[in-house]
Amino acid sequence: MTRIVAGTAGGRALRVPRTGTRPTSERVREALFSRLEHAGAVDGARVLDLFAGSGALGLEAASRGARSVVLVEVARAAAELCRRNAREVGLAAVTEVVPAKVATYLAGEPGEPFDLVLLDPPYDLAPEEVAAALDRLAQGWLAPGATVVLEAARRAPATTWPEPLEDDGERRYGDTTLRFASVPLDAGAPTVKDMPVPPGGPR
After folding, report:
1. Given a cut of 90, is residue 24 above it in pLDDT?
2. Residue 62: which residues within 8 A CB-CB, separation 6 or more?
3. SS3 for 69?
4. Alpha helices, DSSP H only, in 89-139?
5. In the predicted model, what is the mean pLDDT of residues 176-202?
6. Could you tell me which of 69, 105, 103 has the C-alpha nearest to residue 89?
């Protein structure tokens, strides 16, 4: 059984698609959110859950105090299950479900940037598709100080994080690896080389 680990909906069961998804285990979710909460990355955050499956990761964030959560899932049956799960655990008011490919969603114009992004792509998804999603995220979808978490198979190729994301390390749990990155709080701030040259040239 899959369930919400903690928060306002802690202990509530989640429905899981019979096929086509690989829900993150309760043990891994508990470890992940323990780290995220310790870093202050969940409470009040605007969260994006890509390759959402049953919505377990995004709904866990909502249960623990996220301000809003967007679940993106291409399989329509799974997307409908995300909506049902959100209703049944009492989190529908802060949850939006988008039935679309991740690439299609990220090809749109970013709105309000996200503070926390959770990616749990199928383990057999081509590495270049994962890299493309990360590249798109880096183009206006992330707020300063945002955290990005990628769940990958233990033997998956190393992740190259696009700027402005900085590698924050990884944690392994059996065959699952969680890879962390973040955007510096001052990302987008002008640097010395961006400053206009004063009249008369450099001084």
Report:
1. no
2. 7, 9, 47, 69, 86, 91, 94, 95
3. strand
4. 102-106, 127-137
5. 65
6. 69
Please report, to the nearest 10 degrees, the dihedral formed by the alpha carbons of residues 24, 127, 96, 69 taken in order: 60
Q: How far is CA 201 from CA 16, 110, 131, 191, in A?
A: 64, 37, 41, 17
Structure tokens at 79: 């997307």
Q: Against a cut of 0.70, is the pTM above it?
A: yes
Among candidate residues 106, 126, 93, the one with its CA nearest the CA of residue 83: 93
- The whole-number pLDDT of residue 190 equals 43
For 133-181, write each residue's pLDDT tens digit: 999 999 999 999 999 999 999 999 999 999 999 999 999 999 999 999 9
Residue 5 per-residue DSSP state: -
Q: Residues 94, 36: contact at Cβ < 8 Å?
A: no
Judge whether 95 and 73 are in contact, CB under 8 Å.
Answer: no
Amino acid at 179: R
Please state which CATH number belongs to domain 2-11+24-186.
3.40.50.150
| Both tokens assigned to 49 | 């859950």
| Every domain of the chain and the residues it spans | 2-11+24-186
Q: What does residue 82 show for φ and ψ, rounded to 5 degrees? A: -60, -45
DSSP state of 173: E
CB 107 within 8 A of CB 72: no
DSSP state of 132: H
Element at 182 (helix H, strand E): strand 176-182
